[in-house]
Amino acid sequence: MKVIGISGSPTEDSNTDTLIKAIVDATGADNEFVKLSDIEVGPCIACMKCVYTNECVLNDDFKWLSKKVMDADAIVIGSPTYYGAASAFTKAFIERLYSKRHVKLQAGGKLVATVALGIAAESMVSEWMGNALRAGGMEIVGSMTAKGTPCCFVCGVGESCHYPVWNAYSKEMTGMDLGIEAAYEGYLELLPDNKPYEHGSAKILKEYRSVKDEPDVMAEAERIGKLIREKLQSV
């Protein structure tokens, strides 16, 4: 059994990386981890030259990565959420998998698990990844989401900036209560004079949120990994 973990997070030792590795390790299979930000995988250019060959003609690292994907029995793909969407690294990789769909649906039947970390849009990103991979014929064994570290925690000016992520996703700006205050209790305190996009006022209580400190999140990653193992062993 072979399992490959693919991370679309550019952050070193990110929460996304941690959860992908936890799932992969729990499979007990031979495995490999690839960080897309360390290699060159550009977006699909819609040239359609892959239609008859199922091979992308672009000369970058997707050439060897796609071979590893095709050799794997299961794939674990994870992404942070940027602007309510998957990272550009993740999206480019999934776009390039289009080359494997034509006529033969070459990735059909492969097992996949997805991981999405964010502030408010992780469920939407998880759903998008699942739908895109199902379109390639893959079977989604498990999908998990978790809360990540807002970049505004560590940029240096988040406490006084008018436009941090918690204000961008606030009820005043979106018309919806996305539960950021509740989700980040103990990490972030919005002060009484905070007014989204008018006056930023907050206190950052912890600069980094680690999934390693959240037993329920880590347990879910282990559960998905074991489920992949069971599925592979039953084939």
Could you explain the architecture of this structure?
This protein has helices at 15-27, 62-71, 88-96, 122-135, 151-154, 165-168, 171-174, 180-183, 215-234, and strands at residues 2-7, 30-35, 74-82, 85-86, 111-118, 139-147, 188-190, 202-204. The chain has 235 residues and is of the alpha/beta class. The protein folds into two domains: 2-149 and 209-234, Rossmann fold, CATH 3.40.50.360; 150-207, no CATH class. The strands form two sheets. Strands 1, 2, 3, 4, 5 and 6 form a six-stranded mixed sheet that branches. Strands 7-8 form a two-stranded antiparallel ribbon. The longest helix has 20 residues, at 215-234. The termini are close together.
Number of helical elements: 9
- The CATH architecture term of the largest domain is 3-Layer(aba) Sandwich
Helical residue percent? 25-40%
Based on DSSP secondary structure assignment, what is the total number of beta strands? 8
How many domains would you count in the coordinates?
2
CATH topology of the largest domain: Rossmann fold
Beta-strand residue percentage: 15-25%
User: Tell me about the biggest sheet?
Assistant: 6 strands, mixed
So what's the CATH class of the largest domain?
Alpha Beta
Shape: globular
Q: Secondary-structure element order, as H and E?
A: EHEHEEHEHEHHHHEEH
Task: Quote the distance from N terminus to C terminus.
Answer: 11 Å
Contiguous runs where pLDDT drops below 50 for at least 5 residues:
none
Q: What number is the mean pLDDT? A: 96
CATH superfamily of the largest domain: Flavodoxin domain
Class based on secondary structure composition and strand pairing: alpha/beta
As a whole number of angstroms, the C-alpha radius of gyration is: 19 Å
